Amino acid sequence: MAENKKSFVAYADWKETFDALSDEKAGHLIKHIFAYVNDENPESEDMLINAVFASIKQTLKRDLRKWEKQYTQRVEAGKKSAKVRKHNSTVVNGRSVSSTDSVSVSVSVSDKKDIYRSFAHLSMSLDEFNKLEKDYTKQQIDGVCDAIQNFKKNTNYKSLYLTAKNWLKKEQTKKEVESSNGFKAPWQ
Questions:
Q1: What per-residue confidence (pLDDT) applies to 188?
Q2: In this structure, are residues 146 and 102 in contact, taking their beta carbons and an 8 Å threshold?
């Protein structure tokens, strides 16, 4: 049949064919089918087995063509996905890290503006980070940045700072933590 193919489909409507045969002939037919799907190229001198097997063989061939088409599509989709993941990966300390890995990075770029965090198409400057740090802890900011980086639809965002600021509204500010001793009621 096909290399790396470990199964095939037997159809319930074949039951009528097998019921019409004697147990001995049905046994020969099923052995003939298994020999065929395991690429043994079976030949039978029994005309009845050859006649019955002819229609089953066509069904098996049709299913094999369908399986090969699916297999090819899945291989291509896997290659395309790997290419996209490689393109979207971030380089940290000389090694490539996919966007599904959580990494906190402080990077300084001397290109007019110091960058605190950058991935894919988004980045946050140190100035923007300092603005957020007035109200939130570094751990909260890094946690939200990790969540944004791992969010599948982060390509819709234009600014890491504005997105993080919006997502951080769900967190307690430093002032709220100090005034409530760290307690935040679920309804707040």
A1: 45
A2: yes
HEC profile for 140-178? HHHHHHHHHHHCCCHHHCCCHHHHHHHHHCCCCCHHHHH
What is the phi-psi region of residue 182: left when phi exceeds 0, alpha when psi lies from -120 to 50, beta otherwise?
A: left
Q: pLDDT tens across 81-124, in order? A: 888 877 776 666 666 666 555 556 555 545 546 888 888 889 99
| Dihedral angle of Cα 58, 59, 64, 66, to the nearest 10 degrees | 120
Indicate the residue type of 96: S
Tokens of 18: 């097998």
Token pair 């980070």 is found at 129
Question: In one letter, which amino acid is 134?
Answer: K
Query: Structure pTM?
Result: 0.44
Quick: pLDDT tens for 11-64: 999 999 999 999 999 999 999 999 999 889 899 999 999 999 999 999 999 998
Which residues, at least 6 apart from 125, have a Cβ–Cβ distance to it below 8 Å?
Answer: 113, 114, 115, 116, 161
Residues counted in the chain: 188
